[in-house]
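#structure-requests
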Amino acid sequence: MMVDLRIVRQVLREHLLTVPAVTSANFLPEDRPRKRPIGIHVQETLQPEEKPIANKLVEAAGRVQYDVMYMADRGTEQPEALAKSIVDIFPPGTQLDSQGITIYIDKVQRSPGRQFDTAWWFVPVSILWRTYATTAS
């Protein structure tokens, strides 16, 4: 793997944290995603597709999904607004430059909100991204 996924995750998360309603406390732990009344559960592609595109240049493309979760008995307005805010800060064509790499946002998909586990309102937002790296040889 030529692309350091830790950096990709960090750059995307830093950009997500520019949404005023999002703080690092909103991120739900992977092992207990339903312990807070509102949160963002992050599902990331751990093995993005990499392909050589030119001499010593590799393109990596992947997907990150932010699942906005909110207690269903509190209504749908807040999670729907938060999902819209996430979509708004990742428009296609966005370039995120940080830590020596540039991440390009290709597409943002917001699925309709729906009830989950009877107690939760769930709104998934998927972001398709790509970046480039050079090979050593």
